[in-house]
Amino acid sequence: MTKIEQIKLTNFCEENKKKIRENAIHKLIINYCQSNRIPALWGNVHNPRQNHYYFNYISDRKLRTMPPSFTIPIHSSIGKTGTISFSLCEKNNNDQSLFFYAASLVQTVIPYLHDKIDDATVTNKVDTCNLTKRETETLTWATEGKSAWEISRILSCSERTVTFHLQNACNKLGASNKYQAISKGILSGMIFPNTPY
Question: Which segments constitute the HTH luxR-type domain (predicted)?
Fold first, then answer.
């Protein structure tokens, strides 16, 4: 299993960051962000359902101790998860209209952030990981479900040579096996299934 990389951007004060860690609130928010793309509203929010058209509302007893907050999930095409979180400084602030207005404006930059994160991660991955033509060929045939023996017959080489190229591809992609290498190769745009050589 690959380690999930997380990018976090927040305006929380140190006191609230400490409260988030102590109450494991960050785990609730990160779990939400890993499986959702809709921004989340949480914390001590007045009339959360009234403002529901912008957000999903995360209702949890632990979260109600925090000031009104919202988190925007960010997902790159190669599996990186990011969160951008904002909160009001005071949890008992009676006028939250400016908070909701800011939250709605921040959402307009989400597509831009997704594009930039994808550009940065995919470009960086391709720059640091150059598969040879043979590694790409063997990995592409592996996406078609071919065994090392079958690939060796297709490419007119030995089975050991195919295994060597698949292992090199795994190492370059930071994968622990060929299935993970296939996934990373496809997600990063380095290999394309159904493109036999």
Answer: 124-189
Per-residue buried b or exposed e for 101-135, using 16+ beta carbons within 10 Å of the residue's own CB: eebeeeeeeeeebbeebbeebbeebeeebebeebb
Mean pLDDT in residue range 144-160:
93
Q: How many CA atoms lie within 13 A of 113 on its CB side?
A: 18
| Prediction pTM value | 0.52
Residue 156 is predicted with a pLDDT of: 94
Tell me: the pLDDT tens digits for 63-81?
A: 777 777 888 887 776 666 7
Contact 91, 66 (CB under 8 A): yes
Supply the pLDDT for residue 8: 57
